[in-house]
Specification:
There is one protein chain. This protein is an all-alpha fold. The protein has a single domain, classed as Acyl-CoA dehydrogenase/oxidase, N-terminal domain (Butyryl-Coa Dehydrogenase, subunit A, domain 1, Orthogonal Bundle), CATH 1.10.540.10. It has five helices and no strands. Helix 1 packs parallel to helix 4. The longest helix is centred in the N-terminal third of the chain and has 17 residues. It is globular.
């Protein structure tokens, strides 16, 4: 099955790729590893990531998120994986799902 991105999805991919390749090249991960950074991720990078709306892709607009779907989240996650950008947490999707369910966003 071929996955053809819509124009909006391509723009999302290009925005994520631009931010991540600029601020989180593989050397960024290596620096965090070699410096034995206690947090394991860059707060400044994730602040930029959140300011672009990527942290709230699956959160409904009524709660301050982007209200997008799993395909769009997958597009951004693929870009994160492209440079091995370290996330501040791993289980964020399951936590987001619980948050949305608690607020009536999921059934």
């Amino acid at each position: 099955m071929a996955l053809v991105l819509s124009e909006e999805q391509s723009m999302l991919r290009d925005s994520a790729r631009g931010l991540i390749s600029d601020k989180a090249p593989v050397s960024h991960l290596r620096h965090l590893r070699d410096s034995k950074d206690a947090t394991g991720f860059s707060r400044e990078l994730w602040k930029s990531f959140a300011e672009m709306g990527f942290a709230g892709l699956l959160v409904p607009e009524q709660f301050g998120g982007s209200g997008l779907g799993c395909v769009e989240a997958g597009i951004v996650i693929e870009e994160i994986g492209r440079t091995l950008m370290p996330p501040p947490n791993q289980p964020h999707n399951s936590r987001d799902r619980r948050w949305r369910k608690d607020r009536g966003g999921l059934t």
